[in-house]
Amino acid sequence: MATTNTTITCDHCFSKIRVRAGIGYSKRQPFSFACKKCGTIIKGALIAESDNIEFEFTNASEKPFDLNDADFIVECHEDFLLTNEPAYRKDPQTGEIIPKPSPFMITAKLMGQNFLEFSADMSLFLLNQRELKNKLFRINNFYIYDRESEFKEESENLISTESQIETYKSLVQLNEMYFIPILKKENVYSNCSFFKNKVLNILTNKRNELMYFIEELEQLNFFENQIKENLILMERFDELFFEIKPIINLNYIKSIDTDKLMFSILNFDKIKQFYVDLFECVGRELNCLIGLRNLEVNGDHNKLNLPDFNRIRNYQDCMSSSNGNKKKYLEDSLYFNLIRDVFDHQLRNGLGHYKCVYNQISKTVEYYPHTKDLNKSRKETISYVDFVSKLYNLFNLFVSLIYLRTLLYTVYFANKSVLPLGIKDVSLLTFNKFPPSFKNINLVVDNNPPVVCLNHFWTGVRYTHPDILNHDFSYWDFTHFYEKFGFCDENSIFVDIKFEDETLCIEVNKTKVFKFKIYEHIEWYNILMNMGGFSSIQRMEKTEIPYFNVVPRIPQLLQSAMK
After folding, report:
1. For residue 172, what are the domain limits?
2. 3-class secondary structure, 329
3. Whole-model pTM?
């Protein structure tokens, strides 16, 4: 791993500082640190926009001197862990001066066998940032501000559907797929699977009560309001990736003294404000959990029935409660285990309402959580490592709660008899003849395996299953929910598949659900090839995100339709 050195002097105390920086993949790699002598905060950046490596500094000046004359050494690296251990140590037996290992070697040693998984995940996320980032956040913004024509044009190769719920679901999946390489995959899977099983159980045993609850959420415009608020936060979290990366590294390390971790905190106020805004958004997402809890405990989403909250008359009173109370509403349910340590309203109060100070020397955050009277309040201190860990864990919970809301919205549409098929893109095909319409073909999600992964196409390279499927996305398979509404009965669905010039249209019960440009193939390709009359076109270089394999439940129907 390439490194470079430069020498600077502190503008305040004139200490001589050697900066040893690892060269990462970004063109501009920012960092910050405190002068060990006077505490001045020095900010800088390694700039690698050309063959020549350059530096820029604030509160310090580049000055040439012999590296051995430095008063101290500072290490900077955008990809690997940094620790505050001495740059050199003396061997107690030989007296030999041994330099500190590079960040790459330290990280590789701490991660052991997990280093390969870490490298694959980081490579995929950097790939996402390079190939998908700008497009994704443009799509998000077009959706947020109801710019429908621009949204449709920009998302053409990613979200090929004219169905409202499939657009909604695909947008959520698209953002999840973007971030999944740097999330706690086991937590996301566990939370989402837990939500899926809970909702399925309630749908089975208390269907009418559940539908009444979801209907009220829709009447309050909860689903649309929340996704727009969610999408704004996605881009802001991406902007904090560099500063959160040391915590992400810890996912791959069994044990480490976190007091030794070093951070480049470029803008604490920005991180603090993001935590506050994320917390408020998660607080509103908890409304879904409260409604489900009320259903399970009291059989009615409007009944909280807690002695300490007799003034709560209905579900809307629950929604308008403070976030601190919302946490208490869930204490007698299994949902509480998901938020107990993650949803810290006292920390949020300290950051958002009262005095909050970050000490870059001690790497701690000081805040006052309990009262507006700072003279009477007791100051709390949290290490910066723990603070960023709380933010990171809160974002993981946030992703899981978005999934839950999307699941409930899917159930709402299923109940309205609008079939939410799990299809994404069909085939890049030419054909010698146009086949007739396919009648009474029941389309279902194929579980073996679900193609819920990023497929990246660029310069002829395909980045697919082996690189991402260490995460199990099976919680996105909603087949069991569709079965509850009769969508998997071969006689209940009337499906037309029509070819129009270079497009393929799918109509369900006379309603146009999907319209595709006839581009890339996924799972249907093998089936259609077996029917004859089709040939493939060379795969184009592009980025696409398929969500599920979709196959006919009864292939014989497809075969008979082709005759």
Report:
1. 127-152+162-415
2. helix
3. 0.78
